[in-house]
Design goal:
The protein is mainly α. It has 23 helices and no strands. α8 packs across α20, α17 packs antiparallel against α18 and α19 packs antiparallel against α23. It is globular, with a radius of gyration of 21 Å.
Length: 450
C-alpha cells in the first residue's frame, strides 16, 4: 500500500496531472498537494461533524422538539425532519455544481462550509418546543434545510478537487480522503454523543448537553474557511478558465450530453446512500430503541466501527487504484446482497460482542463501496461538468434514499414488527447499485475526460 506520508507530502506522484498531458504552468509540487489534502480533510470533517450530530442525538432532539408520550412517534418526526433536509440537496447540487464548474471549486467549497457552520450554530442556540411551541420544529426545519443545501456541495467539490490534483495511478487513494474525513467527522460526533450521554443526566442533556456539538461548529467553521481561502483552484480548471472553455450552463450541458452517465451514476450511489446512513448514523438509535441495548453501549459500538471504517477506507481507495473501480464496487454490492439480512439477524441478539463484530464487518464492507465511489463518480464526468455531474448524481441518490433511510427503517420496523426490516432495504439498494456499476465503464488509471 502507498505510504500515507507520501500522500500528504506529494512524493512519488508522477510528472503529469491525473494522467493528462495538460499541466498547470507552475506544476504541482508537494506543497500544493499537501494543502489540498489537508484542506479537503478538515473542511469535509467539519461539515459532516455538524451534519451528523443531529442523528447521533436524535433521541434527545425528539424529546426537546417533538415531545410526546410515545418516543417512537417523536423519533419518526425527528428522522422525517432529517429526511426533509435532504430534499433540498438536489437543488443544492445544481447550484453548487454551477458555481464549481463555472466560477471555481475553491469558491464553492469556501461558501459551503460557511453556510453549514452558521446553520449548525443556529440549531445549537434554538429554544425547544417548551419555549417556542410549533415554531421550534419549524425553525429547526429551516436550519436543517440550510445544512442540507451546504452538504450538497461539499462531498462532490472536495472529491473533484482531489481527483484533479492527484496523479492517474493514485486518484482512488486521494479521493478516499473525502469519505475518510466524512467518517472522521461522524466519529467525532459519535464520541461527543457518547461522552455527553455517559456523563450528563437526562435533564442536563435535554436542557443544554445536546447543544454542545452544534455550538462547536463556529470555531471549526472558521478554521475550515481560513484554510480553504488559501487554496488555488485545481490546475485543470485554471487552464480551462484561462482558455475560456468553461461551459456557461453546465447543468444544461450535463443533461444534454451526459444523461446516460448521470442515470448510471445516480443508481450507483444507492448503496452508499442507504448503507452510510443506516450503518454509520442510524445504528445507535436502532440498537438502543429496537434491539434494547444501553444507549451508551450502542454509541460505543458505533464509535468503534467508525474507527475501523476510517482505517479501511484508505485501503479500499488503494485497492481501487490497483484492481479497478468496478471490481471493488461490484464486490461491495455482492457482499451486501448476500450478508446484510444475516447481519441484522445477529444484531437483533443484543449481544455486545456480536453487535460490535457485525458493525465492524458491515463498516468494512461499506468501505469497499465508499472508498472507490468518490473517484468513480469524479472520473465518469469531464472537467467542464465534473462538479455538476458528481453533485447532482450524488445528491439525488442521497436525497431519495440516504436521507430517508433512518425514517424508512423506523417506519418499516414499526409497521412490520420485524427488527431486521432495514437489512432488506439495504440489500435492495445493493442490488440496484450492482447493476449500475456493471453497466458503467472502467475509469481507473485512464486520463481524465476534458
Amino acid at each position: 500500500m502507498s505510504d500515507p506520508h507520501a500522500l500528504a507530502s506529494g512524493q512519488d506522484l508522477g510528472p503529469t496531472l491525473s494522467g493528462q498531458e495538460r499541466t498547470h504552468p507552475g506544476g504541482i509540487g508537494p506543497k500544493e498537494r499537501r494543502k489540498v489534502v489537508v484542506a479537503s480533510f478538515i473542511g469535509n470533517f467539519t461539515e459532516w461533524f455538524d451534519y451528523g450530530a443531529y442523528s447521533y442525538l436524535a433521541v434527545v432532539i425528539a424529546t426537546v422538539f417533538f415531545p410526546s408520550d410515545d418516543l417512537t412517534e417523536g423519533l419518526v418526526w425527528t428522522f422525517a425532519l432529517f429526511a426533509v433536509s435532504f430534499l433540498v440537496r438536489p437543488i443544492g447540487g445544481f447550484i453548487w455544481g454551477h458555481i464549481g464548474d463555472r466560477v471555481g471549486r475553491k469558491t464553492a467549497l469556501a461558501w459551503s462550509i460557511l453556510i453549514m457552520s452558521g446553520a449548525t450554530v443556529c440549531i445549537g442556540l434554538l429554544p425547544g418546543a417548551a419555549q417556542l411551541g410549533l415554531w421550534a420544529p419549524a425553525l429547526l426545519l429551516v436550519f436543517r434545510l440550510l445544512q442540507g443545501f451546504s452538504a450538497s456541495g461539499e462531498y462532490a467539490g472536495a472529491s473533484a478537487f482531489l481527483v484533479e490534483y492527484a496523479p492517474a495511478n493514485k486518484r482512488g487513494l486521494y479521493a478516499s480522503v473525502v469519505p475518510g474525513s466524512t467518517a472522521a467527522g461522524l466519529l467525532f460526533g459519535s464520541l461527543m454523543a457518547t461522552v455527553l450521554t455517559a456523563s450528563l443526566t437526562t435533564p442536563q442533556m435535554e436542557s443544554w448537553g445536546w447543544r454542545v456539538p452544534f455550538l462547536l461548529a463556529a470555531p471549526l467553521g472558521f478554521i475550515g474557511v481560513y484554510i480553504r481561502r488559501k487554496l488555488e483552484d485545481s490546475p485543470v480548471f485554471q487552464e480551462m478558465a484561462q482558455e475560456d472553455e468553461a461551459i456557461k450552463a453546465p447543468v444544461w450541458a450535463l443533461f444534454r450530453d451526459h444523461w446516460r452517465t448521470l442515470v448510471r451514476a445516480t443508481a450507483a450511489v444507492l448503496l452508499n446512500a442507504v448503507g452510510f446512513y443506516v450503518i454509520l448514523t442510524y445504528m445507535p438509535t436502532y440498537l438502543s430503541q429496537t434491539v434494547g441495548m444501553d444507549p451508551t453501549l450502542s454509541n460505543i459500538t458505533t464509535t468503534v466501527s467508525l474507527v475501523t471504517y476510517i482505517g479501511f477506507i484508505f485501503l479500499t481507495g488503494y485497492l481501487s487504484d490497483r484492481f479497478g473501480r468496478k471490481k471493488v464496487l461490484i464486490s461491495a454490492s455482492v457482499l451486501f446482497t448476500v450478508f446484510t439480512v444475516p447481519a441484522f439477524m445477529l444484531l437483533s441478539t443484543g449481544s455486545v460482542a456480536i453487535v460490535l463484530l457485525v458493525q465492524v464487518l458491515l463498516g468494512a464492507m461499506l468501505t469497499l463501496n465508499d472508498g472507490s465511489l468518490a473517484s468513480f463518480l469524479a472520473e465518469n464526468f469531464p472537467t467542464r461538468v465534473r462538479y455538476t455531474g458528481f453533485a447532482v448524481s450524488f445528491n439525488v441518490g442521497n436525497a431519495l434514499f440516504g436521507g430517508t433511510a433512518p425514517a424508512i427503517a423506523t417506519l418499516l420496523i414499526s409497521k412490520t414488527g420485524n427488527p431486521i426490516a432495514p437489512g432488506w432495504y439495504l440489500m435492495v439498494a445493493a442490488i440496484i447499485a450492482l447493476i449500475a456499476v456493471a453497466l458503467s465503464p472502467e475509469t481507473s488509471g485512464k486520463p481524465l475526460q476534458e
